[in-house]
Design brief:
Blueprint lengths: L1 H21 L15 E3 L5 E2 L5 E5 L6 E4 L7 E15 L6 E16 L4 E10 L3 E6 L4 E5 L7 E8 L2 E9 L3 E7 L4 E13 L7 E8 L3 E2 L8 E3 L1
Antiparallel strand pairs: 1-2, 1-16, 3-5, 3-15, 4-5, 4-14, 5-6, 6-8, 7-10, 8-9, 9-12, 10-11, 11-13, 12-13, 13-14
Length: 228
């Protein structure tokens, strides 16, 4: 009799476990609704609307740099820099959001390049540029075209007068990474080659900057932008 009771208990537990495994999921187990690639205010939050204008300046305490060598310290540093972009497409994640970069400015720049006494201006040419943001990797890619390449013009003061140096991005694109911990987009050592200018102009430039926070200036309250 004792063995029979033990077998009965084991059978009952087995049936109960099978029943639980085979039971349909409750409403609480349903997956969360999909979010868009770009959301405002929080990760997985409200989708950034097509047509919204995004803006960011260099992170506090940092500069936007154009170094003459990759990772080098010789070059130009700008204490002020900002970009503006308009959202063109913001699909459900995973996916790729598209923006149009309409402005990219630099100011309060200094140089420690031999023979350069001042930085008169730093100008980004050929805007707007198509910009994409990938949800899985957070990769941000800014791309030019054959007719409108990614190009930056430096007007520099030298001991012999002002010179104009024109640089174009290698591969006609620059790539950065977005991060949600500080709502930033960071570019590191993005390579440019001199397109025109005298020997005073360095042969190459490497762009490094971190812009944070990226804000949706169209949405109420100007919330920070997240990548999902």
């Amino acid at each position: 009799m004792r063995a029979y009771r033990s077998m009965f208990v084991i059978s009952a537990l087995t049936a109960l476990s099978v029943g639980l495994i085979g039971a349909p999921a409750s409403a609480d187990d349903d997956p969360l609704p999909a979010s868009n690639v770009l959301t405002a205010g929080s990760a997985g939050g409200t989708a950034v609307a097509v047509g919204d204008v995004l803006n960011a300046a260099v992170a506090t305490g940092t500069t936007a740099d154009f170094a003459t060598t990759s990772g080098g310290t010789t070059g130009i540093k700008c204490a002020q820099s900002a970009f503006t972009a308009t959202v063109v497409d913001n699909p459900v994640a995973p996916g790729v959001a598209t923006e149009s970069a309409t402005a990219h400015t630099f100011a309060s720049c200094t140089a420690n390049i031999l023979g350069v006494t001042r930085v008169n201006s730093v100008t980004v040419n050929n805007l707007p540029f198509t910009t994409t943001v990938e949800s899985i990797t957070g990769t941000v890619t800014v791309s030019g075209t054959d007719a409108a390449p990614i190009q930056t013009t430096l007007n520099l003061g030298t001991i012999l007068g002002s010179v104009t140096c024109v640089y174009r991005a290698n591969g006609n694109a620059i790539t950065g990474v977005s991060a949600n911990d500080d709502n930033s987009i960071a570019f590191a050592n993005q390579a440019f080659a001199k397109s025109s200018g005298p020997v005073t102009c360095p042969a190459n430039g490497y762009f490094t900057a971190r812009y944070a926070p990226v804000l949706d200036t169209t949405a109420e309250g100007t919330p920070a932008v997240y990548t999902n």
